[in-house]
Each structure stands twice: as C-alpha cells, then as structure tokens.
Amino acid sequence: MSPAFLYALVGVGLFTLGLYALIVHAHLLRKILAINVMASGVFLVLVALAARTQGAAPDPVPHAMVITGIVVAVSATALALALMLRVRAETGRAELAEEPLE
User: Fold this and answer.
1) Which residue range is the domain that position 65 belongs to?
2) Are 84 and 28 in contact (CB under 8 A)?
C-alpha cells in the first residue's frame, strides 16, 4: 500500500465522518465543524492525488487548489459562525428549527 493511497483512504474516511456528523447533529456549531472536517478530507485526497508516480515531483496544481481551498474554507467558516450567532440571537437557540417559526 503506497503512502498516497493511504492518504487518499484517510481523506475519504474524514469526508465520510464529516458527512455523518452533518446529517446526525442538529446543533449549528457541530454542523459547521462537520463541514470543516469534510473539507479537510477533500484537501487530503487532493494532496494524495498530486503524487502520481514514485520518485517524481508531485503536480503543483492540486497543491495550489488546496491552498486556495484552505483560504476559502476559513472565510466560509467565519461567515457561517457569524450567521450562527445571528440565528442564536434571533431565536434563542443555536439549532435549526424542526417546524416553521410563527
């Protein structure tokens, strides 16, 4: 088993774990953290796919995509946290409503 395959397998595992947490938990902070775990899994898979052959230099394009993705993920997390605080201030809860609010 090559290290690139192991990294890709761990990345898929992280994505799956994040997707499970996103579906199961109702609290918005846990959902935001789950999305960040999913993004980390995607980044790990992209880095694993950059190393195509043994001994050759890895492809720099996936690395650049990961660096850009990290910047976008940090910005999206900040926006999601601000929106979560706004929802909590309006409703008094940091969870999504199961039924429509009246």
Assistant:
1) 3-91
2) yes
φ and ψ at residue 67, rounded to 5 degrees: -60, -45
* Strand, coil or helix: 67: helix
Determine the Cα–Cα distance for residues 87 and 89; give it in Å rounded to an integer: 5
CATH of the domain at 33: 1.10.287.3510
Predicted local confidence at residue 57, as pLDDT: 84
Q: What percent of the chain has pLDDT over 70?
A: 95
Give the mean pLDDT of 56-69: 90
Alpha-carbon distance values, 41 to 20, 59, 76 (Å): 13, 19, 16
pLDDT in tens, 7-29: 999 999 999 999 999 999 999 99
